[in-house]
Amino acid sequence: MSHSDSQATQTLADDAKQRNEAAAQAASAQKRKKLFSIFGGVVAIAAIGYGTYWYLIGSRYVETDNAYTATEIATVTPAVNGIVSAVDVVDTQAVKKGQVLVRIDDADARLAVDQAAADLDRTERKVKGFFANDAGLAAQVLAREADQKRAGAQLLSAQADLKRAEIDLQRREALAKSGSVSGEELSNARTALLTAQANQKAAEAAEVQSRANIKATQGAQKASTVLTANTTVDDNPEVVLARAKLDQAKLDLERTVLRAPVDGVIARRQVQVGQRVQSGAALLSVVPLQQMHVDANFKEGQLTKVRIGQPVTMKADLYGGSVEYHGVVTGLSGGTGSAFAVIPAQNATGNWIKVVQRLPVRISLDPKELAQRPLSVGLSMVVEIDTRGQMQVGDAQPKSAQNSDTKAAAL
Predict the structure, then answer these.
(1) Lowest mean pLDDT: which of 28-42, 219-233, 366-380?
(2) What is the C-alpha radius of gyration for the chain, rounded to an integer number of angstroms?
(3) What's the CA gap between 47 and 52, in Å, rounded?
């Protein structure tokens, strides 16, 4: 092979190599372009999916697992002191409203009722005596008025006798000068005058005494009337007071039997037979499971759109994720847990660190669902609030605009 042929062969090989490299570069560029297109499509799809999720779910629902069941627990306390004679319930026992829970020895209470009944009877008799005395005093006033009239008549009679005695004495003194009347007759006339004068004074004193007797009797009648004025035996203040004491004694007797204030389950029983209990001491509690609600502690940033009346979906750890409860937001707490803590945070200090606060949200439960699957106090719940939903008045369950269907379609 000549030198020129060798050079030509080398040139052809270089050209082929360059063409292969150019083709490889073009194929690589095409592949990168395709990969970038695929990546851009994936990013676009992810953005659209996230935007759809945020519009349909993320911006609409707020969720927390910091939620627990609660209810208004009824504490049973005695209103009277005494020794416990019987305890008819145990912890975890279901009871109905009005069912007997605890009995306190009622011997003292029964004695108090008997004593109050006797006091009432005695008071009624005493008040009847007041009315009888008032009537007697009224009769005495009439008698004293009659005595005064008689004394007045006697005074007039004594005055007439005195006048007649004075006239007789004057006649006899005139006749004595002519000797027509003896000295003895004149002496008798003078004596008769003195007697008439004495009788008049006695009649005046009797008349004064009769007026005094009337005033005394009228005063006694007024004093008696004050005790009975505008009343009868039944509504006299003393009888009313005695009857109130009897009613109080009967009430204390009824309070020796402690009954369940609501339907529920017995919890925290602390009373035993033979124990002496004081008024107001907590003996046991009744948990009304049918009135259960949920306290959900949401972060403050989650409550922007939360309003009273919004529908809620809940799941209990007790039954797992397959069981859902429905409810409605009924209220938001007036303060965070740290604000009501026994030792509140001192945020005015120099070493302050911001901590996201949680605010309790009260959520009611559907009574029908609660009756089918009862809950106990303090159970963990997962709560999700539909911030766009509305609770229609009169509905047993919250109605949201295609709540479940929208979530299923979005997912």
Answers:
(1) 219-233
(2) 55
(3) 8
Measured in degrees and rounded to the nearest 5, phi and psi for residue 286 equal -120, 120
Residue type, 19: R
Distances in whole angstroms, Cα of residue 143 to Cα of each of 136, 151, 218, 222: 10, 12, 11, 16
Measured in whole angstroms, how far is the alpha carbon of residue 207 from the centre of its chain?
69
Q: What are the residues whose beta carbons fall under 8 Å from the beta carbon of 397, sequence distance 6 or more? A: 311, 326, 366
φ/ψ (deg, to 5) at 394? 95, -10
The pLDDT tens digits of the residues spanning 70-104 come to: 999 999 999 999 999 999 999 999 999 999 999 99
Q: ∠ CA(249), CA(250), CA(256), 5° rounding?
A: 95
The pTM assigned to this predicted structure is 0.64
pLDDT at 189: 72
Which residue type occupies 344? P
Q: What is the pLDDT of residue 152?
A: 76
Dist CA 42 CA 393 (whole Å) = 45
Q: What is the arithmetic mean of pLDDT over 292-321?
A: 92
Contacts of 372 (CB under 8 A, 6+ apart): none
- Range from 272-286, 344-358, 361-375 carrying the lowest mean pLDDT: 344-358
